[in-house]
Amino acid sequence: MKKLFIIFAILCLAAPAMAADWNFYGSARFATFWTEVDGDVPGDADEDEGLQWAQQGNSRIGATVKFNDEIGGGFEMSDSFGKRKLYGTYNFGSGQLLLGQTYAPSAIFASNSVFDGDGDLLGIGEFYEGRVPMVQLSFGGFKLALISPSTQTFVEDAVAETNYDNDVTLPKIEAAYTFKADMFSLTGFAGYQTYELDGVTQNFDVDSYVAGIGVGLNFGPIFVNLGGHIGQNLGNYGAYQPYLDDDATLGATDIVDNDGLGYLAVVGFKASDMFTIEAGYGHEESELDDGANNTQEADQYYLNATINITKGFFIVPEVGMITLSEDASAAEPETFYFGAKWQINF
Fold it and tell me: Which of 110, 164, 208, 242 is the most exposed, having the fewest neighbouring CB atoms within 10 Å of its CB?
């Protein structure tokens, strides 16, 4: 009887899945890089070099699903089977409603830098907050999303020496518009978030915003991508930032905001369907509004080539440099790297 019940349950689950159109896909990505790190301090104790030979964490498997002309969705899992995407869509004729986790409207991906797990100049010229839970409306090239807020609890209080809880009254609000023509594309985006730090003796508001633009130009085999963004308290907003501290801090009597700025430029040449070469530069900086010149900067330069071996299999050799600097220190650490990413899509 128990076996019959299990079989019946499987058939009940499988029946609607079989009625839908499932499009499965996968991507295996492998990094083979040599890195040399120089901390830029006297002596060589801060110097390090080594080999990276590992499967990239952004390897994935997933599917897009079409249940009928109105209902669809998709999911995507990482190499460790963690959730990357999980969303459903409702097409209502003039637009689409999306519920679930996927890329935020601000995601542009103007660069194809492959170092550091397909870094793409994310957080070092390109604003990026990843795949986030949201309710999103799309109308043509316009997207409006109400996103799960990104908050952090401050633990420093120079006055009361107490911890704070965060109180949220609104979701994060983000919008983007993309215009496309044959040789030109333009994307503009903006977002805002606020939450309150609730303390024993006092409360503070942590306000964050971002505004940015991305431009793509195509001249036959030559392409150019440009982008830039400004913002406040981008770390609190939820921006991906692997190199800088771009969070607000808590001063003696108020929040000390952090101003952010980033920009990038990418140029490439597609010689053939088998070979594309690309060079890029990205810059990111953050500065605390405390009058103490607390500015941090990060820069990346790279040159790579995409070599298509066959359909679904390509190699991207890349060489580049990442440099860091801050006003509080004369040192300028740098990382030189070279190697390749190997990728098979299936």
Answer: 242
